[in-house]
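Quarterly update from the structural biology core.
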Amino acid sequence: MSKVRFKRLATNSAEFIPETLEDILFVRLYLKEGDLISAKTSRTIKLEKAYARHVEKERKSVLITVKVREVSFGGSFDVLAVQGEIMASSDENIPLGSKHVIEIYLGTRFLLVKCEGGIDFNMIEENLVAEEFVIVSMDSIVAGIGQIKGSRVKYIAEIQSNYQGKLYEVKHESNTAFFAKILDVLSPYLREVQKVLVTGPGPIKSAFKNYLEGSLGRKLQILELEGVDSAGFDGIRMSLNSEGLSKILQDNVFSSARNAMIKILGSLYRGDGLASVSFEEIEYMSSNGACDSLLISKDYLSRSSVEEDRLVQIFSDVKKYRGALYFLDDSTNVGIQLESLGGLAALFRYRTR
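Predicted structure, tokenized:
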């Protein structure tokens, strides 16, 4: 199920919880000077006590509202630094009008109020939607559990079955105990999704699929992915790199990024001008609406000397002209290939020069 990570409060206000790098980027592009942001943050408070020789300081968690003056990435794509003047605070010791920086991380809950005009909720819903599912890659020895949100991969746990090998009789009860252990770890994550992908070598994944269908009290789409001969976390990585993924999950991030990379590598080999790894060329082509897909390493900002404003303008142009943007890391083959190209690559719709 695609899950929208915002809550409409009024025509000009909404509550947000960014959960992917794509969410963080959307907030980076959507926040404007003059907007109001409210979030829990930390602040150093001066405490003047009677008979104390020095002013004591205490770091406290407070709810602060700032009027946005400037927004930037906090050194990486997974955090935003929102600078502004304090307009309201839950602590009376914090002076209004003073400067403060609210940092928005993945999972940070914050309130946005647009002081000029309303909020375009249709646009937000279009941008803050990402494919979410959990994946179980298993054999009779180990099961790896992962959570997928957009391009974000969270490796949750590897669970051992304690199966002793072929010299011992494998009983149905041992499989059931193994499945119960997996479900116990899996259950909290099933509340957020309606899709589970089960993969790995051998027939045990089919048995686990049947176990899930019989154990869960609600309908859940449980899909089997064939062609993966590893289990555990290695099996999850192999699954996300597999051709079969796009057959059972239409238009998922990993398959789409993989297809874009295949076209980019082919274009670079042919030299036909329909792909590039040059920042300047990507910048020019994006400004002309020619960028179909942009692939960027999650660590590109921290490793690159490129000015953030120029990079953000590329992101804005790609979004403006309905291009696709993929944040990748070394958890997939596509991410590894992207790193070998310098961490930035683009596929163009046409040549403009």
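The longest strand covers residues 56-73.
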